[in-house]
Write a structure and sequence with these properties.
The chain has 384 residues and is an alpha/beta fold. The protein folds into three domains: 2-86 and 261-291, Rossmann fold (3-Layer(aba) Sandwich), CATH 3.40.50; 92-253, Rossmann fold; 299-383, Ribosomal Protein S8, Chain: A, domain 1, CATH 3.30.1370.170. It has helices at residues 12-16, 32-35, 51-54, 74-79, 92-110, 127-138, 148-153, 164-167, 193-197, 216-223, 244-249, 262-280, 308-319, 323-331, 337-349, 369-378, and strands spanning 2-6, 21-25, 40-43, 61-64, 83-85, 119-123, 142-146, 172-175, 204-207, 230-233, 252-253, 299-302, 361-364, 381-383. Strand 3, helix 3 (51-54) and strand 4 form a beta-alpha-beta unit. The N and C termini lie far apart (51 Å).
């Protein structure tokens, strides 16, 4: 059995080496010829999987190690009898922690003594948005949820959701929707000139979902105004050909890595491994946890004199500080468009190891129950 796989999917040999021969490919430039003799195709979001790529090939199973599926023509795969699996929720914790770190920096940027005084509007309450909402609510943030498809599907929970207009009044608006172009609630360019004009300079807009959910041209025009909101983007229209002018204008810019924790990546691989095993009728023998290495930073300690807000944010940023990714992306924006596109992909391909908060043990000496609860809410391991 030949398995053609994106070279950037981690642990390919560990999970799939005893199932078949593995051929690694560049997912961004994958061609029909490279996949014609494959039995299994494993991809990430940079590969468009459809009739143009697979017609006439031997492929009988496609797995994407991502939560999003808008790059895969699932209807065509189903018509051809080709098995398909994604990895929904694999990096939900990673993205939620990314947003928490951004919120921490934004509170510092605005001089807020209590970061939980910010009201947070979450647009898209699936695996990622739901995980983020749970963390924020446990941390005593005021959270408003907007998800019209869920609101329609869960009429008994209708009071739990608000309109997009109401969410856009929050101190922070963070986007976690899939990219859809059809149906009752398409998300393609859902945030355009009208919506951006509703936000002011004291607000923060975060997009760690899909780049095309925001109209990039409208955003750039809005950011040229003096009353524009603060913006943090992890995802961009037309990746990897992102606009350097937009990078210059946003407050925080990262190269589509919000979900790039080691745990998130490995869970994505594990989920498509499990799906392939089920498809082939093979026993599932491996779990991502058995391959996790020891973290570079394993322990931090706080005494009874630690300020609660500061302690939580110090530990959070010790695990992940988005300013490092921001600096790397801005440094990559020189040169011609081809150079910039290659640099964007390289930042993702060569991304340094990043661990989730669950990898860090926090020792608390004489701490309050409130501080303990805050650390537990994020997922840190506690030693009291």
């Amino acid at each position: 059995m030949l398995i053609v796989a994106d070279e950037n999917i981690p642990l390919l040999d560990s999970f799939f080496g005893d199932i078949g021969e593995i051929r690694r490919v560049n997912g961004r430039t994958l061609t029909r010829d490279e996949v014609q003799d494959a039995d299994v195709l494993l991809v990430r979001s940079v590969t468009r999987v459809d009739r143009a790529l697979l017609e006439g090939s031997r492929v009988r199973f496609v797995g994407t190690a991502t939560i999003g599926t808008d790059h895969v023509d699932q209807g065509w795969l189903q018509e051809q009898g080709i098995g398909f699996a994604a990895a929904p929720g694999c990096n939900a914790v990673s993205v939620a922690e990314y947003v928490l770190s951004v919120l921490s920096l934004h509170a510092e940027h605005r001089g807020l003594a209590d970061w939980s005084s910010q009201t947070i509007g979450i647009v898209g309450v699936g695996n990622v948005g739901g995980e983020l909402a749970r963390m924020l609510q446990r941390l005593d943030f005021t959270v408003k949820l907007c998800d019209p498809p869920r609101q329609d599907a869960e009429p008994e929970q209708t009071d739990a959701f608000v309109s997009l207009a109401e969410v856009l009044e929050c101190d922070v608006v963070t986007l976690h929707t899939p990219l859809t172009r059809a149906g009752a609630y398409p998300t393609h360019r859902m945030i355009a000139a009208k919506e951006l004009a509703m936000m002011g300079p004291d607000q923060l807009l975060i997009n760690a979902g899909r780049g095309e959910v925001i109209d990039g041209e409208a955003l750039l025009e809005q950011l040229r105004q003096t009353d524009a909101p603060t913006v943090a983007l992890d995802v961009w229209e037309h990746e990897p050909n992102i606009k350097p002018d937009l990078v210059d204008r946003v407050w925080l810019a990262t190269p589509h890595i919000a979900g790039y924790s080691l745990e998130g990546k490995m869970q994505g691989t594990e989920m498509i491994y499990q799906a392939l095993c089920r498809y082939l009728g093979l026993p599932v023998r491996k779990k991502s946890g058995q391959f996790l290495p020891e973290p570079a930073l394993s322990k931090v300690s706080f005494t009874s004199s630690a300020d609660e807000n500061e302690a939580v944010q110090v530990a959070l940023r010790a695990c992940y500080d988005p300013r490092r990714d921001d600096a790397r992306l801005r440094l990559s924006m020189s040169g011609n468009p081809e150079d910039r596109a290659r640099a964007f992909d390289q930042l993702r391909r060569d991304y340094p190891v990043r661990r989730e908060c669950s990898s860090l043990k926090v020792q608390l000496k004489g701490s309050s129950k409130s501080l303990q609860d805050s650390f537990r809410s994020i997922g840190f391991k506690l030693k009291i």
